[in-house]
Automatic annotation (TrEMBL):
InterPro entries: GAF-like_dom_sf (IPR029016), HrcA (IPR002571), HrcA_C (IPR021153), WH-like_DNA-bd_sf (IPR036388), WH_DNA-bd_sf (IPR036390), WHTH_transcript_rep_HrcA_IDD (IPR023120)
Superkingdom assignment: Bacteria
Family recorded in the similarity comment: Belongs to the HrcA family.
Gene name per UniProt: hrcA
Role noted for this protein: Negative regulator of class I heat shock genes (grpE-dnaK-dnaJ and groELS operons). Prevents heat-shock induction of these operons.
Protein name: Heat-inducible transcription repressor HrcA
Organism: Acidimangrovimonas pyrenivorans
Transcription regulation listed as a keyword: yes
The keyword Zinc appears for this protein: no
Domain (Heat-inducible transcription repressor HrcA C-terminal) ranges: 114-336
UniProtKB keywords: Repressor, Stress response, Transcription, Transcription regulation
Entry's transmembrane regions: none
């Protein structure tokens, strides 16, 4: 049981209702919610003074905050987390939203990248936030791996997959590399790679090198590790990160400080800083996950929230993720089912195409 859920369980009905109405009012308007506003909406007739006392107690517990000199309150990050975990009511996808998503995925487009590009644009349009789409990693078995020397300090690694797909990456090989070490590295990998996908090969390669260190030259071993790291460290687990809707977040940033935070967020995304950590979020379990503010390192400086869901192939393996970034006052109740529905549709589309 988290600290937030313990606090929520200990609140009486009145405190819980005040807290819920403050959060819902803030998520709806973005403005602090005052006691006089709540006197008109509470289920029981209570005075503004009574509500102010409850608000002060909730502030003391760390669930609400008083911005500036306003008499109204807004939820803290802990308050938002507690609301999302314990009080958020998530319904079905709105019919209009469902139809827009269905139209995006209902085309006969053969290029999956183009389809996911449209998904990103549709999500940012529907949610008025920014969308992230992590496109599927290539998981066909490997047929052949080759290292090619291009120039001193530059080499090319070529991956040929069983389905005919070819990937080439330029990287910096270990210094002092000889042509024989290159051949040895390629032979070592090709002997291991037969019938394996890239992720399967990568998971076993370290152990194999350690076990067979005497069989493979030290430089060849470094080449194997640095060549595969091109896929691991430079976005290779996923072919592409699609970001759409930057303008939505910039337009909603009223203050200069907030504008700078949003710009920093997108600078980080475009440089793919900490994206490896972000990718792991999708692999920690099925279903939609919500990250508020500093709960995720990538978004800690931007004061943003992330709603993300993985999508899976026909074998129930997670192959990508779909998410929406917005201010912490996102309409979670609407956006969570949109992200969930879109992720399920994308997974089904990819599974169906894999059978064809």
């Amino acid at each position: 049981m988290t600290e937030g859920s313990k606090i929520l369980a200990e609140l009486n009905d009145r405190s819980r209702e005040v807290f819920r109405r403050v959060v819902e009012g803030y998520l709806s308007s973005g403005d602090p919610v005052g006691s006089r506003t709540l006197t008109r909406t509470m289920s029981e007739k209570v005075s503004a003074a009574t509500i102010r006392n409850v608000m002060q107690d909730l502030e003391y517990l760390g669930l609400l905050d008083s911005p500036h000199v306003s008499a109204g309150r807004v939820p803290t990050q802990m308050g938002l987390r507690m609301f999302v975990d314990g009080l958020l009511e998530v319904g079905a996808v709105d019919q209009d939203d469902r139809e827009k998503i269905d139209r995006t995925l209902g085309s006969n487009e053969t290029d999956m990248g183009a389809v996911l590009d449209r998904v990103g644009s549709a999500l940012s349009g529907l949610t008025q936030g920014a969308s992230l789409v992590l496109t599927p990693k290539h998981e066909a078995p490997i047929r052949h791996i080759e290292f090619v020397s291009l120039a001193p300090g530059r080499a090319l690694v070529v991956l040929v997959f069983g389905d005919g797909h070819v990937e080439n990456r330029v990287f910096t090989p270990p210094p002092g590399l000889t042509p024989s070490a290159m051949r040895e590295a390629a032979n070592f990998l090709n002997a291991l790679a037969e019938g394996r996908t890239l992720s399967e090969l990568r998971s076993s390669i370290g152990k194999e090198i350690a076990a067979r260190r005497r069989e493979i030259d030290a430089l060849a071993g470094e080449l194997v590790e640095s060549g595969l790291a091109v896929w691991e460290d430079e976005g290779g687990r996923y072919e592409r990160l699609i970001v759409r809707g930057r303008a939505n977040l910039l337009e909603s940033a009223a203050e200069a400080e907030e504008l700078d935070r949003i710009r920093n967020l997108f600078d980080d995304l475009e440089r793919k800083r900490d994206i490896a950590e972000f990718l792991e979020l999708a692999e920690e379990g099925e279903g939609v996950r919500i990250f508020i503010g500093s709960e995720n390192k990538l978004f800690s400086l931007s004061g943003s929230s992330l709603v993300v869901s993985p999508y899976m192939n026909a074998d129930r393996k997670i192959i990508g993720a779909i998410g929406v970034i917005g201010p912490t006052r996102l309409n979670y109740g609407r956006i969570v089912p949109i992200v969930d529905y879109t992720a399920q549709l994308v997974g089904k589309l990819i599974s169906d195409r894999g059978k064809g």
